[in-house]
Amino acid sequence: MIDHPLYLSDSPDMDIDPVSDILRLANVKALLTGGFTAGGRWAIGFPAKDKIKFFAVVKGCCWVGLEGDSGMTRFEAGDVGLLAVPRSFVLASDPDVDPVDAMSLFSGAARTTATIGAGDEFEHIGGHVEFDPASGRLLADVLPPWIHIRASSPQAMNFRWLLERLVDERAAGLPGTQLASAQLTQLLFIQILRAHLETGEVMPAGWLRAAGDPHLAAALRLMHGDPARPWNLNELASAAAMSRTTFADRFRQIAGVAPLTYLTEWRMRLAERALREQSAPVAEVARSIGYGSESAFSNAFKRVTGRSPKAYRNAARTPGLQARHPSVISAR
User: Whole-model pTM above 0.70?
Assistant: First the structure.
């Protein structure tokens, strides 16, 4: 028997939100890891990390320089940045100040904060995003390398409120502060995604860009709401209020794959999760995502992932041997 539902909504009565659905599947968690205060002239160099990094200016202003960029960008209080590629970066009060290594400032057991100078002019908080190693590429592969959300954006009020609450939680040390900070940080990350979707800036083709398109999002909700149903192009186009041809062309352009290819790949992601975490027979996993026969499912699974369902399950459950698969639900 299936140990728990493959569909990830919180309630069967709720409309499926594709973004939440995928973030849950990838087990995405945003973690606040530290911060610093500063005064006078200062600059800190942060090394490249193989993680999605984010930071926010809580008080004052600074300059931000990214590895590979010729200039620096000014960040004001309330600005938020997210770096999705492993590039080093510098935060500085002035562009001409030589940076000190961040590792020297934050060295020491469990040290997550630092003060430079009087610490009365500037305040920063930062963290990173963790995700499941098997399915987390669903997120990492659709993010642009760098996102800068300004305090002057329409979303500024939400960011300001969240940053204030995070600072209060860190300072007060009240009961439950760790959980409260974790929830606030998760919401901050979601607000970064929302704000970026609303900026209209060019994004990589993929599910996140499609989720930001109001017409395509309606079709995504159908596929995520009932992935086992044999959806056809006419039904999905009707939900998007488009002709079949217009819908198919726009979906491929925005999502990077054809609509029914997206559906197949999403089914395979659900199947991977079941094969990793559940003990149900392969035939039962196949039926749960809409395949009438185990052989049809196995052929589709191998075509998408490069492995048979049984080989994938064995690899996923063998210590030191991770089940790897190509990036999916994104541009080819």
Answer: yes
